[in-house]
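Final report, closing paragraph on structural work. Over the funding period we assembled a curated collection of sequence-structure pairs, and we close with a single example.
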Amino acid sequence: GVAVEMKAGLALLAALVALIALSAGEPNIKTVGGAFVLTANPGGNISFIADALFANGVAITTSSALAASEANLSYQLSVSIAALRTDLLGVISTQSAAIVQLQSSLTTETSRAIAAENALSATGTSAEASLGAALTQEQARALSGEGSLNVALTGEISRASDAERAISTALSTAVASEVSRASMAEGSLSSALVASTQTLSSAVAREASRNVVSIATVSAAVSTETSRAIQTDASLAFAFAVAVAGETSRAVLAEGSLGAASQTLATGLASTAASIASESSRAATAEAAVSRAVASETSRAWAAEGSLAVSDAASATAAMTSINLLNGSFSISLTRETSRALGAEASIATLVSLEVSRATVAEVSLSNLLGSVVFSPTQIPGLATWITASVGVVLSGSAVTSVLDQSGNGRTWSATNSPTYVASGIGGLPTIQFSGSVPSSLSLSTNFQPPFSVFYVGRQMGTLNRRVLTGVSTNWLLGYWSGAQDQAYFGGWVSAQGTPGATTTPFLYESVQTTTLSMAYRNGVQFISNANGLGGANGIGINTYGEHSDCQVSEVLIYTQALGTVNRQLVENYLMKKYAL
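Its predicted structure, as stored:
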């Protein structure tokens, strides 16, 4: 026998069992002294087994003493082999079942794929059939629509023919109606033209009367001024009279032109009316003649018809031919007279349009003449200083540092504590805003003594309502004081003191001082006139003299003369229109 000593453990034992199972014989295995002893059956391939064991690192020795352990080892090996075979058969069975299940799944999936392929093929065939049916249906609808379109086109052609006939009938009616309307319009236009001429004449008369009154007012005012004012206002009155005369002359010329145009229009309308009357008379005469001829020829036709049995049929034919010719002549005559009436109507419309255009041109020319007189404060002599927030404001950011004089005299107003420039203030125009709590101001050091005139546009802001325009080193104020408006103190109280209460409404305040009289105005209306205060201002400023306000001022003008009524109103109108007061 062959004694095999196992050095490797259970794993190598399993390999040994497998090798033994592959041998030709059924070996007997026993244990001898703790070692495995293998006895081969006759015909067994012990050398093959030994080679395999050597290849796996197993030491093999031979021995002849196997008697004691052979039976026990053989039994244990048989049990292990049987268990191993059972496990292998279980694994094989499990794998076989898995293979069968896999084959079944594969068969199922193959069937599903074939079914899906068949369904897809059937769906494609059905979709193709549906598409063909839809195409056929759309072709049928297109043919049906074409038929409907032809029917509709035929209907529209028929309707167009009916409409054409209706239009022809309406046109004939409209021609007669428009001739009537033209006559009515002629009368209305004549009345309107007369009324417009009368209105224009009245307006020119009123303007001439106003100008005469203004000239008389200027003359009366000039007589009360000093010699210097007399010379100045006399020159202004002369210039104003010349301008009034020029404008009056232009207005008269415009009125004359309009009167001539009105006369031309009236003549044209009279001529057109005569033409229409003549053409209407001709049409009526032609229509009467045609009616008589038709009646005569109809009578002849009836006579011819009565004797038709015994007369030549050609006579009746000739009579009917004459009637047809007369009808044709009547149609031609009616068409010609209608054309003449339409021509006359067009002439009236053209003439009216021309005269309206001429009247419009005359109106625009008159407006341009009146608007060509542009007033500037520098046109009145004696303008000493003129500042406005609209031009000449010197800024550092939004802070005002100075305001340049626009009078041409170079009297720049200086700022303290940075008044603020406001782009949209009184009347939507630029203004300068002053603080009362941290007093900001503008001032000019020039002294103004009577006679002189002052104008300014400003307002209180509703918090600190004290002085606005005031003297710098003398007690002089105009407009506001201690919570009140309409105040005037010129070295003495000219106005009522402390009433009425101040509002935030912007105003134009004016003062005119002579050596014997002081007058004050708000928005062109005088609110005080007396000799209680005749003092001047040593320096003049905004928000100075220790009584400060939160206020805004947009413009200041000072003249070194007491302006008369005409000049004062010119400045008033300029400022009130500019700031929409």
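The longest strand covers residues 452-460. The mean pLDDT is 73. We thank the funder for supporting this effort.
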